[in-house]
């Protein structure tokens, strides 16, 4: 990756950190969960409204570092209209990307802008920041109670 492209990617992350998308409470959410990353102090709540098996609305609230906030923001953008099954496939691929285990980038769902988090794989501590919102989303879908911790 050229440094120019890296700068561009960082700019997209900073942009979502400064102006997060879908950052609000969802009053009529039918699924929700809270996540906490003690390593960094990131906190996130994820709210979902499902229409059958499809995500109709998704929003989040929380306070965290640039990576965790941008990841939550971009996750909510990526999820709208997807089925629960598609969401799980996307998370699997995203998780492989940020942990540096993505063997075939062409296989599976299109990560789109989520590819900006590829650089995170070089910073193991940041992997938990990048995946916090996704782990919390998974808990919301499974309706698990309590706070999800990355530890
Ligand atoms: Zn963090």
Describe the secondary structure blueprint for this structure.
Layout: H1 3-18, E1 31-37, E2 42-51, E3 54-63, H2 66-79, H3 84-98, H4 124-142, E4 147-149
Parallel strand pairs: 1-4
Antiparallel strand pairs: 1-2, 2-3
Helix pairs in contact: 1-2, 2-4, 3-4
Structure description:
- The chain is α+β, with helices and mostly antiparallel strands.
- It has a single domain (3-144), classed as Alpha-Beta Complex (Sufe protein. Chain: A).
- It is 42% helix and 20% strand.
- It contains four helices and four strands.
- It has helices at residues 3-18, 66-79, 84-98, 124-142; strands at 31-37, 42-51, 54-63, 147-149.
- A hairpin with a 2-residue loop joins strand 2 (42-51) and strand 3 (54-63).
- Helix 1 packs across helix 2 (66-79), helix 2 (66-79) packs across helix 4 (124-142) and helix 3 packs antiparallel against helix 4 (124-142).
Q: What is the CATH topology classification name?
A: Sufe protein. Chain: A
The major sheet is characterized as:
4 strands, mixed
Radius of gyration, taken over Cα atoms and rounded to an integer in Å: 14 Å
Tell me the structural class. alpha+beta
> What's the CATH C level?
Alpha Beta
Helix content: 40-55%
Reported CATH architecture: Alpha-Beta Complex
């Amino acid at each position: 990756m050229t440094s120019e492209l890296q700068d561009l990617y960082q700019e997209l992350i900073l942009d979502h950190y400064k102006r997060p998308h879908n950052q609000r409470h969802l009053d009529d959410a039918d699924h929700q969960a809270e996540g906490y990353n003690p390593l960094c102090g990131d906190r996130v709540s994820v709210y979902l409204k499902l229409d059958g098996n499809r995500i109709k609305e998704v929003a989040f609230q929380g306070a965290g570092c640039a990576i965790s906030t941008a990841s939550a923001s971009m996750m909510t953008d990526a999820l709208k209209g997807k089925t629960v099954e598609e969401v799980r496939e996307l998370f699997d691929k995203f998780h492989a990307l940020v942990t540096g285990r993505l063997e075939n980038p062409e296989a599976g769902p299109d990560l789109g802008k989520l590819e900006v988090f590829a650089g995170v794989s070089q910073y193991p501590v940041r992997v938990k920041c990048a995946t916090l919102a996704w782990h919390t989303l998974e808990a919301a879908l499974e309706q698990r109670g309590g706070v999800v911790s990355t530890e």
